[in-house]
Amino acid sequence: MDAQNREPATRACYATSLRKASRRLTQFYDDALAPAGLRSTQFAILGELAGADPGPVTLNQLARALVLDRSGLGHSLRPLQRDGLIRLDKGTNDRRSTHVVLTPDGRRRYKRAFPRWQQAQDRVAAIVGQSAANELRSQLIDIAADDRLR
Q1: Structural domain for 106, as ranges
Q2: Residue 130 is part of a domain; what is its CATH number?
Q3: Which residues contact 10 (CB under 8 A, 6 or more apart)?
Q4: Is position 38 within any domain?
Q5: Interval 70-118: pLDDT, tens
Q6: How far is CA 41 from the centre of its chain?
Q7: Global pTM?
Q8: pLDDT per residue as tens digits for the range 21-36
Q9: Cβ density class 122-136: b for 16+ within 10 Å, e for less
Q10: DSSP secondary-structure letter at 6?
Q11: Cα 131 from Cα 33, distance rounded (Å)
Q12: Is residue 86 in a domain?
């Protein structure tokens, strides 16, 4: 096939296609969560903390769960800390570790935002179909967890 008939690399690229879809979905979820005073990234952090097993969650554990580096996580945590939705505590056994704690205000904000998030979820599923949405989510979770892509 000659160069003129080939699909442009940006259309064939998995990462570019995923980023385009991610930007569209992020904007959609941000709009849905805005009345609750959260962005989708903040909702995800609060959700990780709200669903965490009993016990403290370290910065490193939270970064791994969200597939972020620590500096990126720190940037995302600052507004949540400023607004009193999370607290950063030094570890009691290991003073080098920092624990991220969901505050009562953070739990309330998460619960207030949850129905808006659920409406966004339902809308996405209605647009692409529930089965396709579930399969897509499953595949994306698998990709996010695949250490071969490091």
Answers
A1: 18-149
A2: 1.10.10.10
A3: 16
A4: yes
A5: 889 999 999 999 999 999 998 766 667 899 999 999 999 999 999 999 9
A6: 5
A7: 0.86
A8: 999 999 999 999 999 9
A9: eebbeeeeeeebeee
A10: S
A11: 24
A12: yes
